[in-house]
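Researcher: Sequence recovery benchmark, item below. Answer with residues only.
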């Protein structure tokens, strides 16, 4: 259920904030299962959002920077609600795109024990495998009859065009950095030639959704991940992992004494 739960959670966050967001989550995993997670969140600045709101027909006199701050809830809170993770203080920075990014780093003793009310890591397991490691993500095999879908309401073509244009700036990413080089990702999930779940770098695999993909998905329905996915990596590069090992160890000790 891991991947579908993530998609629903992120899509729900986007809708609740009524705006365009970028959210990334990187899990860096050590051979013993400990590691760190780095999460970053940004929302489109008001100056960039305003033209889209005007195209939607909202009166200009109603559009003020304050309306972007009407949601008092910290957008990262629901993702920080992960049991088994200790968190550092968030850091803000402004990117080249003009967006303000809030980044928070957490540390965990065992990724198999990381979980939370949002189900962000539900259905994940990490273990030693042959000469390396294996990360398994549970599929969405559900029993019983499917719930009937409600009748789709026709959308205004002009409004739909504006929404697609606005969503083009969106990005959702969750990436797992394995202890060794990726050997296989089975199966990969590809939608419209877009690799939704697969290898992302020499040592990482993950889920990536951008605005172009979301705008193509009919009704923004979550993709079906019926089969389990397995990521395998080769022997760990101990020298390359030394700095991460020290960082994680010191962070866990520091938080244990607080």
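Model:
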């Amino acid at each position: 259920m891991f991947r579908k739960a993530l998609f629903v959670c992120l899509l729900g966050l986007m809708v609740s904030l009524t705006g365009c967001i970028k959210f990334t989550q990187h899990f860096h995993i050590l051979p013993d299962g400990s590691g760190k997670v780095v999460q970053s969140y940004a929302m489109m600045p008001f100056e960039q959002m305003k033209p889209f709101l005007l195209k939607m027909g909202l009166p200009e006199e109603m559009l003020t920077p304050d309306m972007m701050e009407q949601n008092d809830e910290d957008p990262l809170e629901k993702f920080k609600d992960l049991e088994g993770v200790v968190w550092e203080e968030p850091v803000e920075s402004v990117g080249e795109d003009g967006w303000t990014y809030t980044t928070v780093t957490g540390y965990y003793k065992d990724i198999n024990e990381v979980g939370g009310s949002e189900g962000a890591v539900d259905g994940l397991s990490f273990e030693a495998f042959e000469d390396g490691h294996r990360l398994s993500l549970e599929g969405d095999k559900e029993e019983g009859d499917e719930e009937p879908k409600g009748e789709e309401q026709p959308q205004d073509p002009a409004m739909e065009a504006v929404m697609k244009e606005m969503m083009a700036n969106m990005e959702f990413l969750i990436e797992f950095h394995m202890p060794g080089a990726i050997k296989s990702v089975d199966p990969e999930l590809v939608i419209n030639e877009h690799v939704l779940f697969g290898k992302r770098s020499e040592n990482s695999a993950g889920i990536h959704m951008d605005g172009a993909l979301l705008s193509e998905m009919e009704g923004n329905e979550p993709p079906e991940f019926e089969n389990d996915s397995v990521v395998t990596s080769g022997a760990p590069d101990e020298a390359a992992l030394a700095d991460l090992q020290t960082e994680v160890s010191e962070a866990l000790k520091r938080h244990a004494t607080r």
